[in-house]
Amino acid sequence: MSKNINLQLGWPSPSLFPSSHLLDGASNVLNSSKKTAAALVYGPDAGYDPLRESIAKWLGSFYLPSGGISSERICVTNGASANLGNVLARFTEPGYTRNIWMIEPCYFLACPIFMDHGFQGLLKGVPEDEEGLDIEYLRRSLEASEKEASQQSPNIKTGDRYAKMYKHIIYGTPTFSNPSGKTMSLRRREALVRLAREYDALVITDDVYDVLRWPADEHTSSAHLGTPPPRIVDLDRTLDRGPKDEWGNAMSNGSFSKIIAPGVRVGWAEASPALTLALSTLGSNRSGGCPTQLTASFVHELLETGTLENHLTDLIIPTYRTRYHAMMKAIGEYLIPLGFAISVGRAYEESLLTYKGGTNGYTNGHTNGYTNGDANGHTKSIAVAGGYFTYLTLPDDVSSRGAELAAIALSNLHLRFAYGDMMQVNGDDGSIERGKEGYGKGIRLCWAWHPEDEIVEGIQRIAGLIQLIRS
Ligand SMILES: Cc1ncc(COP(=O)(O)O)c(C=O)c1O
What we know:
Blueprint: E1 5-6, H1 19-30, H2 33-39, H3 49-63, E2 74-77, H4 80-91, E3 99-104, H5 111-119, E4 123-129, E5 132-133, H6 135-148, E6 168-172, H7 186-198, E7 201-206, E8 213-215, H8 232-238, E9 250-255, E10 267-270, H9 273-280, H10 283-288, H11 293-304, H12 307-335, E11 341-342, E12 352-355, E13 362-365, E14 371-373, E15 379-381, E16 384-386, E17 389-393, H13 402-413, E18 415-416, E19 418-419, H14 429-437, E20 442-446, H15 452-470
Parallel strand pairs: 1-18, 3-4, 3-6, 6-7, 7-9
Antiparallel strand pairs: 2-10, 4-5, 8-16, 9-10, 11-17, 12-13, 14-15, 17-20, 19-20
Bound molecules: pyridoxal-5'-phosphate.
Pyridoxal-5'-phosphate binds at residues 10, 79-81, 107, 173, 178, 206, 208, 255, 257, 262, 267.
């Protein structure tokens, strides 16, 4: 029997886990009585302070927002999933909060988190186009939702404890999205912030893949990458002279799951200091302290010593980059000729690197694309790839049979992949309908779990599957 190949699983492969670095981090903490005392008590509500500081510094050096990032904007979480539930508990109430707007196709595992917080039947999909979320669709839907809304105040969550309730939640992954692989353009990001302010919405973004980026071209050096797309939370700080009120309209949900390992269960939230404080004083944190205090102290050691950065630069990014290219080449060789198409939208092209020529080197600027220049100062755009996933449109003759193809692949070919219908927004008939003509005709593939030869073998099995169906 051939080996199982799982191109569905969005997990980092165990061979990439930095276990020895974690062991060093753990030793640094547990061999120091001072650090141990801080790591093994109930943690502060907002989490292990040294980690809040080191995350703020690390994010500031990556996103380069003007004014840097202060640690009062950060609280430590036990991962993006758990924190999503926390935000809902603190800032929403079904009824007052009219709808949850999920970028569609959606990260399907988020649907039950919203449902657990009372939003069953209130989830609504917002389609994507080549630039990411369809902002005009969202505007029309928010307007309609407001017209329908009957209750004007929270029913149960009242008083000082719930000083802020949002009327809408908008949820998605703007950069290297799971599942679509798309990255939202800058103008869409800005429009989204303005829309959120207009409709009293909190935009929650799972910014969990942002740092995993490389040039889409195999032969272009990573040194030519520009500044990453600003997060929605970065834009909310500065756009049109900053947030509307002390709460702001955006929260970034960060995680070490994809860049260290999911089992560490450490993540962070970034938002306005007011929102961060209210989030971190959730009842369960007040009673139990930070939900991941000991591991947070180990992760801090990895950040503080630069070990995580080296791990990403030396191992994780080059490995994913190589796997990505192996997958793309195999798709080009075996699937495109069968009628598949890659549909990950337009590459993000707002920030750029301009080569000044001579000895001046590279500088950041803002025109039309990531560029790298020749010695004469000429520039050309480069596309940026990253994250974990690519999305393929199925050939026309089988495009409505994604679920069936996935079932046959599993039973006959020992191969798993995720198919479009899995990414429907739960309970939204519109999302199901749109899927039939859009994302439902696709499949999602992940390059993070298997090494190159198994990725290629998996793609070959998909080609074999299509040939089998057609025969
Ligand atoms: C978009 C998105 N959000 C959240 C998660 C899970 O994050 P965590 O492990 O921090 O709970 C994943 C993992 O697949 C994801 O793709």
